[in-house]
Amino acid sequence: MPKKLDYSFPKNFLWGTATSSHQIEGGTLNDWTIWEPGNIADNSISGIACDSFRRFKEDIALAKKLNNNAYRFSIEWSRLEPRPNYFDNKVLAVYQAMIDECLRQKIEPIVTLYHFTVPIWFAEAGGWENPAAPQAFNNYVTYLAHNLKNLKFWCTINEPGLYAFNAYGQGVWPPQRFGLSPWWKALNNLIKAHRLAYQTIHLTNKRCLVGIANNSQAFEPASPNFIARQLSTWSKFWVNDHFFKKTANCHDYIGLNYYFHNSIGPGKKPKITWRNDMGWEINPQGFYQVLIDAKKYNLPIYILENGLADAQDINRQKFIEEHLIMVHRAIQNGAPIKGYFHWSLLDNFEWKWGFTPKFGLYEVDRQSLQRRPRQSSRFYAKVCKNNGF
Ligand code: GCO
Description:
By secondary structure, this protein is α/β, with parallel strands linked by helices. The chain has 13 helices and ten strands. Strand 5, helix 10 and strand 6 (254-264) form a beta-alpha-beta unit. The chain binds D-gluconic acid.
């Protein structure tokens, strides 16, 4: 038995790590594959990534070494449905094998159906702006719901709001459609897509849990100024609550990813003292706010991502400790948090930043693709083993 823990977590708490298909699998052919050349700053396009589509057993074994009892990964829609309405059985068999391998290792698989990448045919037909998009997505979901019979935990869409903002609002991710109208259309179609998917999965699969992973952020007014307070409340609504509100009754759990804290509006911004390698502020206090606020939904809460880019592994252990203290505190204060997934299991393709940011508990050598545990992974493995620290 470990010595008495300072922070012990509820029984059956899920301790996991998270990844996504395009970021780790390698050899994917989707809207990002087409877009990357010429758009990725250091030209480290996704390419072979971590070759995880072939090495998934090795990677699930890494999760096992971390004493994870859960693992979140995603299915690459473009692989499974390379042409409209044509589903590749061989690809299905690989994803089924990933699920089975997790179950065999006593790891609960949590599977995301759409994590930022779409098939080329879908993108060419207008992507998420196309009014037919939710139905096209539902077709893919129907196929999965009929086939993945032993999957309990489904996450339909990763960060719909953030994706719509980056791809359409700001226009910095494919399809780079900048404007209010494309943004609004895409966002509303994602809302419809989740609602349909929720129903579809429940029709065939009675005991499943279905939700999304929302990019939930902390917002604070920069000053007590009226405008700052209004702007902060307004931003919080649009980023954290809008999607959940529009898809009310279509969530069996509240899935959220936490990375960002924002000081909003006019006023003197507090000096940021802790940042990750990408310059993003690290703010565990903000995590607490987000978690306590999610109590209002009266649903179990799963933290489906939280992590940092830290190539030297100087801050990762402290980051995990400080964030888990907030999770613990939120649980003590009534937030029904049931699981924590660290982003990420291994270094991977960080979207428009290429392979430079290192989010992994395991380091991946870009030449040999060999995985090596970072020091902080030993700490996380202990936390998972002891259900606390
Ligand atoms: C996101 C995604 C992940 C990222 C991670 C680190 O939040 O953008 O879910 O794909 O890699 O968040 O930025």
